[in-house]
Amino acid sequence: MSTIRQQMLQRIRQAVLEGNRAGGSPPAIPERGQIGYQGAGADPLACFRAAFTAAGGQLHVVADGAGAAEVILDLVRTHSIRRVLLGHGEVLDTLSIVEPLRASGVGIVDQSRRRQSPEPYDSQGTDASCSDARFAADLGLSGVDYLIAETGSVVLASRPEQPRSLSLLPPIHIAVAERRQLLPDLFDLFAVLGSPREDLPSCVSIITGPSKTGDIELRLVTGVHGPGAIHVVLISG
Question: Is the pTM above the cut of 0.85?
Answer without folding.
Answer: no
